[in-house]
Amino acid sequence: xxxxCLFCKIIAGEIPAKKLFEDEDVFAFxxxxxxxxxxxxxxxxxxxxxxxxxxxEDEALIGKVVRIGAQLARENGAEQCRLVMNNxxxxxxxxxxxxxxxxxxxxxxxxxx
Length: 113
Ligand code: AMP
Ligand code: ZN
Prior knowledge:
Blueprint: H1 6-12, E1 19-22, E2 26-30, E3 38-44, H2 59-75, E4 81-84, E5 100-104
Antiparallel strand pairs: 1-2, 2-3, 3-5, 4-5
């Protein structure tokens, strides 16, 4: 039975996405609605609903998600970038499969809205 999760479907190739990187643990793809000249998402292949669902056993995996995000940013001309994980609907999370936003290519303001 296929997963109801949008990002699990992207990992499985059931929904098309512009893939940037894939290995046995991690998948990265360009955001469909970019908020900066560079905007992609890095996700663990393991389904976790968000940062609040990370277990001790996932620590290395999530560290890898962040490392790959920074590396891909560098490789795509956005070494200076913002890495964001939204945790919960009030924080702006709309897809409940943990994802790291990587945004770059323009100056960023703080705090975010
Ligand atoms: P969030 O609001 O933090 O849950 O971020 C979800 C992100 O997923 C948004 O930036 C969306 O534009 C992006 N998104 C939703 N559907 C797709 C899709 N099919 N392919 C690529 N990005 C998507
Ligand atoms: Zn999922």
